[in-house]
Amino acid sequence: MMSAWKKWLSGRAHGAAVEPSAPDLQQMQLQLHHALRGCAGPMSQRMRWRIDETYAVEDLWLLRGEIFQLVAGEFCQEEAAQRINALLPVFSGWVPERMLARI
């Protein structure tokens, strides 16, 4: 059974007339760091390191859940949801559209 990512990437490659441009991973990493603003402590520092050491869009996308938990713990769930939802435009076009749902 083909994963959702593989199906999406496969369809994207066949449906595109030109090669898609590479994602701006540094911009994505920067936006994930921005979502962590104001968070302190060893878990937040570890997450910052993980963001810096992640070089695949899919892997950066998967860090959102842990970022949500860190922000919710430091502030509240509403603030965490706002910050995670603000990341959606950054990943638009790089993850399947059905995965770009607001929290």
Can you give a write-up of this model?
α5 packs antiparallel against α6. About 5% of the residues have low confidence. The relative contact order is 0.14. The longest helix has 12 residues. Helix content is 62%, strand content 0%. With 103 residues, it is mainly α. The chain has one domain. The radius of gyration is 15 Å and the shape is globular.
Residues in helices, as a percent range: 55-70%
- Relative strand content: under 5%
* pLDDT averaged over residues: 88
First-residue to last-residue Cα separation: 28 Å
List the helices and strands and how they pair.
Layout: H1 4-15, H2 25-35, H3 42-52, H4 57-62, H5 64-74, H6 77-85, H7 88-91
A few lines on this structure:
This protein has 103 residues and is mostly helical.
Tag the structure with descriptive keywords.
0% strand; single chain; 103 residues
